[in-house]
Amino acid sequence: MNDKNKDLHVHDENCDHDHEEMEVIYLTLDDDSELECEVLGIFEVEDKEYIALLPLEEEEVLLYEYVELEDEEFDLLPIEDEDEFDLISEAFYALYSDEDLEEVEFDEDEEFEEDEELGND
What are phi and psi of 25, to 5 degrees? Predict the structure, then answer.
C-alpha cells in the first residue's frame, strides 16, 4: 500500500471536500492482471462497511466488504453469502439511486489478491 490510501473514506453528509476528482483503486486479480476501478463509495450496512467499485470502461459494479487496517491500509473481502450480497446490493441501490445506475450490473464472483492500491489518474 502507499500513502494515497488516505484519500479513501466514507462519502456521506459529513464529507467536506470536492469529489470532482475520481478516486481509483487497482485490484490485482488471480491471473496477476490489474483491474482499474472507480470507487463509487463506501457505505455501512448492519455495522459492516462495504465498498462499491466500477471497473473503468465497464458497467458491472463490484461489491466487497471494506476493512480498515493499520497505517491507512485496507482490505477487501468477497461477499460470499448470497443473502448478504442481496442485502448489500439493495443498500447500494438505495444509497446511489439518484445517480445513473440503471444499466449497472453486479458481479459477486470477481476474485482478486490483496495487493490493492489507490491511485488518482
Answer: -125, 145
- Nearest Cα neighbor of 49 from 36, 37, 39 is 39
DSSP symbols for 24-45: EEEEEBTTS-EEEEEEEEEEEE
Residue 88: in which H helix or E strand, if any?
helix 82-95
Residues paired with 77 in a beta bridge = 65
What average pLDDT score do residues 50-78 get? 92
Q: Sorting pLDDT into bands at 50, 70 and 90, what band is 99?
A: low
Handedness of CA 46, 112, 7, 56 (dihedral sign): negative
Q: What are phi and psi of 17, to 5 degrees?
A: -135, 170
pTM of the model: 0.65
Write down the domain spans for the chain: 3-119
- The pLDDT value recorded for residue 108 is 52
Q: Three cell numbers at 23?
A: 478516486
Cα 50 to Cα 102: distance, rounded to the nearest angstrom:
20
